[in-house]
Design goal:
The protein is of the alpha/beta class and about 425 residues long. Helices cover about 30% and strands about 20% of the residues. It contains 13 helices and 19 strands. The protein has a nine-stranded mixed beta sheet. Strands 1-2-3-4-5-6-9-10 form an eight-stranded parallel β-barrel, surrounded by six helices. A two-stranded antiparallel sheet has the order 7-8. Helix 1 (about 20-30) packs parallel to helix 2 (about 55-70) and helix 8 runs parallel beside helix 9 (about 235-250). About 35% of the residues are buried. The structure holds phosphoenolpyruvate and manganese (II) ion.
Length: about 425
Amino acid sequence: MTDNTKLIIMAGPCAVESERQIMTIAEVVAKVGGHYLRGGAFKPRTRSGDWEGLGLEGLRLLQKAGAEYNLKLVTEILGPIDKDTSLTKTIEIYRQHGVALFQVGARNAANQFLLNGLGAAGVDALLKNGMNMTIEEWRGSASRLSGEVMLCARGKNNETVIARNGQDITTIEYLVNHTPYKIIFDPSHIAGKREYIFGITMAAIATGVDGIIVEVHPDPVIAKTDGRQSITPKQLEALVVASHAQRSLYLAQKELRESFHGAQIPAYVDIYFREEDLERVAALVKDLETEPYQKPGTGILASRISIGTFGQFRHHGLSIGELVRYSPKEGEGSAQAILVTTPTGDRIKMTPYSEAAVRYRGKTLDPTWPGERVELVRGFAGQPIRDAFLTIDMGRVPKLSETPLIIYRTVKE
Ligand code: PEP
Ligand code: MN
């Protein structure tokens, strides 16, 4: 979506059951202004012998409904459709049926074979969290994909008698603000019961999720799968209207939200920068009305600024680095590193500060600070750079090698 102020609406049945069913629902989804029609053709099931969807026929019906009502399609891929068809071929078949977004379900969220196959094909994916997956593992799965990735929060297996799959709202707030992916909220699989869907959807939109995916059925009581959590077309209408209103409220609160975050308990930091960057940085420090002072005997200028001003440094095309100690890998000894946030928002860890660490990994050490190689600290610094702890050339991180680098150290209060 180019207009990222709009909430993405994905809706449809848990499973495609018949032509009549999917056509009826597609009409409703289109009527409420939905963007994607969902519907499982190949269904993951808990027990052997349970109905597993219409298969290829389901894809055909989905394609027909999507074409008729001008909706994009999202549907789950479990793996190769049968023993004679490769994963690559299967992905091709899905594409031929107009599937725009490949859903990777909770049961396959860490399926390396499937994720690598989708990554190789470069398709866009809706990646659900696994039944019991950490955020780091989820990010790891996302790193295998190469098209657009949307993370779909669907809750986790839990022991409560209320929600089918517990979803911690703090996690949603975190995902929205700390991952580069669109976050899609799945109230249906979280709640498991349709009466909870309205409220939890509003709560999720208030954290800033990018979209929702909801199960809807014209007659939930006779739905073949997930009827208890499927809402009716009338309910969908109300939900979508309320969701857009809630999104507008979220957007309208931008200033208050920023004011809240900007008014954190002030933490002060010392900043350091290279002498060659002095002029540029000093001017900026002056703008920020902080007091620069010379660090005795270091040739480094320092200034005490509040953490809330970091954004302004980035805004001026400066890289921000945090002096950190990192846990060395076996044999490296303790080493210092710099955690850098680039103007593009990437988070990278710069080494080497320790010659021993460099020797251990067989890299060449450029003694000119800040070093010639950088390491990615986390896997979410943008999709072209994939693996966490991957060593990359500075030149691959846009602008970093050209911009002055400010180093800060948090001052304990
Ligand atoms: C579904 O979307 O119908 C589904 C099977 O979801 P999940 O993988 O979250 O259980
Ligand atoms: Mn379902």
